[in-house]
User: What shape does this take?
Amino acid sequence: MLTLTDHFGRSIHDLRISITDRCNYKCVYCRTGTNGAAYAELPFDDYLRMARILVGLGITKIRLTGGEPLLRKGIVQFVRDLTQLRTTEGKKPEIALTTNGHLLAEIAQALKDAGLDRITISMDAVDPERFARITRVPNGYESVLAGVRASRRAGLDPVKINCVLLRGFNEDQIIPFGMFAREERVVVRFIEFMPLEEDRVWTPEIVVTLDEIVRRMSEYLPLQEIAHERSETARRYRFADGVGEIGIIAPVSHPFCGHCSRIRITSDGRLRTCLFSVWDHDLHELMRRGAADEELVEFIVRVVENKEERHHIGEPGFVPASRTMVHIGG
Ligand code: SAM
Assistant: This one.
């Protein structure tokens, strides 16, 4: 059976599909605050065909993202359709969603009922004023908090919260997020800031690293590291009293490219083999020209074989990715 393996022997089983590059937030570290969508959106049937073919090639997890995926009407039905796919082992693929949570409270239960397995909600502060300064949208905090709680009520367990820390901006939120994890019974995961923003403001000094986060959080309460699987991107820690978990995703200070198992499809149907790819591969163009499934399979297998070995963040001669995060799908 054909499966997806690259030249470095990594087996690919995680797929992220961006279903729009529009976003209702203008987070200071992600967007310029002026631009809207830059790329097309495809009908859901086109993403579904791509997903079906990729699941037939060994994909077992599909994460929907954007832009802000909840801006797309029809997402509930799309989740339902994805649950009908079967992996090469005959199972339902795991379906996950990454969202800013702004529109989530209304739709969390419907997503769960449609077959969504997991949800990750992005929050970069746990106080309303700071939240508004980061997102550049007034009164978002209450909506997102309502989305977090609605997700838990709907049984999307565990709810994960993604937080990007920027030095001098929200690094003082580390301990408040530790408290939040314990009070709201969510898993908070800090992500090191990567050079993928529209404004190109990244410097190594802005990155708040894994070691710093662990050190700072331990001043609040002792942490115990939880054993994690090799392909897991997050280092996981529980508070020593057993209440609450945090994770740290450290692509900058502790890169995990050697066991990367991901590929991505952008909202306009391009295949990307790395967040930092300097080119992408137009799968949708082939579909538009009427390619049969076999041709698409051949194309995908060839593209994935050539997946980049690793990113080069912080190295001399680093070449920025051909798209920024919001237009790739985080
Ligand atoms: N709108 C959705 C959301 O807010 O979760 C999905 C897209 S967003 C681009 C996905 C995640 O990428 C968010 O958690 C965001 O904080 C994170 N992100 C954006 N730019 C980033 C960067 N330069 N480095 C690390 N994470 C970033």
Q: What stands out?
A: The domain at 14-328 is CATH 3.20.20.70 (TIM Barrel).
